[in-house]
Amino acid sequence: MQVILNGQPQRFDTPLNIVQLLEYMALQGKRIAVERNGEIVPRSQFGEQMLADGDRLEIVVAVGGG
Amino acid sequence: MDNLIIAGKTYSSRLLVGTGKYKDFAETRASIDASGAQIITVAIRRTNIGQNPGEPNLLDILPPSQYTLLPNTAGCFTVDDAVRTLRLARELLDGHSLVKLEVLGDPKTLFPNMVETLKAAEILVKENFQVMVYTSDDPILARQLEEIGCVAVMPLASLIGSGMGILNPWNLQIIIDNAKVPVIVDAGVGTASDAAIAMELGCDGVLMNTAIAAAQRPILMASAMRKGVEAGREAYLAGRMAKKLYSASPSSPVTGVISSSSKDQAA
Lengths: 66, 267
Hints:
The structure holds two protein chains of two kinds.
Chain A: E1 2-5, E2 8-11, H1 18-24, E3 33-36, E4 39-41, E5 56-64
Parallel strand pairs in A: 1-5
Antiparallel strand pairs in A: 1-2, 3-4, 3-5
Chain B: E1 4-6, E2 9-11, E3 15-18, H1 25-35, E4 39-46, H2 58-61, E5 68-71, H3 79-92, E6 98-101, H4 114-126, E7 130-135, H5 139-148, E8 152-155, H6 169-178, E9 184-186, H7 192-200, E10 205-208, H8 210-213, H9 218-238
Parallel strand pairs in B: 3-4, 3-10, 4-5, 6-7, 7-8, 9-10
Antiparallel strand pairs in B: 1-2
Helix pairs in contact in B: 1-9, 3-4, 4-5, 5-6, 7-9
């Protein structure tokens, strides 16, 4: 399965949900927000939503800005 | 109390500051504290894949419980990017709906694309965002943004990050005189007198980032900006004297001045 993660192609050999994706990215417990194929994924659904081939994911944080 | 009210929430500080361009989080936090700002802007960016897990997060340094965070759409050049960024921001900040919209039109000047800004504002207002909107200093566009339902209009004083100061006070004055929502001068302030001039015009607040972060001593400049905004606001409320060329009026009594002139009576 290949997804586009923050603009970069990323391959996964096993199925995974968003909780597992965040663990893989070492982002568990961090203040982040997730958009999947243009739609916000509420935190409560992180465990339910399985990634699918071709998904486009954006994972964002707050950073310094004016 | 002379408070700033935005979208029904009351703030005692009229200085709004950004959090970009500081050398580290400690300087960011110290500058913001010195500025007295209660509303602080943050940007929304992709996480770095494989970033250091122990790396501190901006929101650990500036907790949303202590400040009103104002997520922005800096760097967005299309309606779609701006709207998606703020939807992500609302999710990131647990449903917080006060946002700063800016849709840029040109990478060199960072001048706003007002056609796209109007479209994005309409979508966001319909989705119940409370939109503080960065705008050119065109009074008609500012009025249209207000009519769409933006909770504050934020005209530029000069280009973002330029430090050129208040280049068109006349346009700002028209916007201020006509607006029924708060007018926040956003972008272009370079030093404390610029902030004071903006406030003396009667605007409701000033938003800045680079003027503080790019000063030689940012924390001291943050303190200066706080005073500049407060001084300008007080001067506006006090009502300045009329300007009058060539009609000198001394501040001291005109009689009883000692004199050795021959006009004095001899004893």
